């Protein structure tokens, strides 16, 4: 009989108000959100000398903005230089604000089971871009951005969806560092100007 199953599912003494926590979180969200930024000013956007290159974070989970699902940064590539090379499971979209150059993309074969495996394919593809273009990075593609202009910087706006991270798929691997990368470097408007004048 069905009630014979009681011996299995009735076991356990743990109590926790998890559903009530969801209700409480929803009820207090408007007050919390009122304290989160809807407008972020340039001086509130943190610089980072990252392994991927010179970044100015526009929207990031750590910045206390109203944005729940998207992270975005501006990448500055000095004249004749390049970004780092990396791979991530999330797809990425970049808008070219300034400059011209090209991307190198290398697709990977992926297997996701209890473990996660990826292997680069042999083909490396080149995609040229210039100001006004949008660059699409497919999921799990090794990619790198190159500034083809020896005299002018390139600026790209990168956007990725952080839902991948919340889904347990926050796979990000740095394969090559940007030439400008220096651990612990402190960036200011003046140091950025120096990078733009003196590539490498």
From TrEMBL:
Domain of life: Bacteria
Pfam families, sorted: Auxin_BP
Intracellular or extracellular location(s): Endoplasmic reticulum lumen
Keyword rRNA processing attached: no
One GO process term, biological-process aspect: auxin-activated signaling pathway
Keyword Ribonucleoprotein: no
GO molecular function: auxin binding
Assigned keywords, A-Z: Auxin signaling pathway, Receptor
Coiled coil: none
Protein name as it appears in the record: Cupin domain-containing protein
Source organism (scientific name): Fertoeibacter niger
């Amino acid at each position: 009989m069905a009630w014979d199953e009681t011996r299995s599912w009735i076991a356990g003494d743990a109590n926790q108000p998890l559903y009530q926590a969801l209700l409480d979180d929803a009820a207090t969200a408007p007050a919390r959100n009122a304290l989160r930024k809807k407008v972020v000013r340039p001086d509130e956007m943190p610089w980072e000398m990252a392994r991927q290159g010179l970044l100015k974070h526009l929207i990031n989970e750590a910045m206390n903005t109203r944005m729940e699902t998207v992270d975005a940064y501006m990448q500055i590539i000095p004249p004749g230089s390049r970004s780092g090379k990396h791979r991530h499971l999330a797809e990425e979209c970049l808008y070219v604000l300034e400059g011209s150059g090209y991307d190198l993309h290398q697709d990977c074969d992926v297997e996701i089971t209890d473990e996660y495996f990826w292997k680069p394919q042999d083909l490396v593809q080149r995609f040229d871009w210039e100001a006004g273009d949008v660059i699409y990075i497919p999921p799990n593609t090794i990619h790198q951005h190159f500034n083809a202009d020896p005299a002018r910087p390139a600026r790209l706006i990168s956007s990725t969806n952080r839902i991948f991270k919340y889904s347990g798929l926050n796979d990000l691997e740095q394969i090559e560092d940007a030439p400008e990368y220096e651990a612990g470097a402190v960036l200011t408007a003046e140091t950025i100007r120096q990078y733009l004048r003196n590539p490498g």
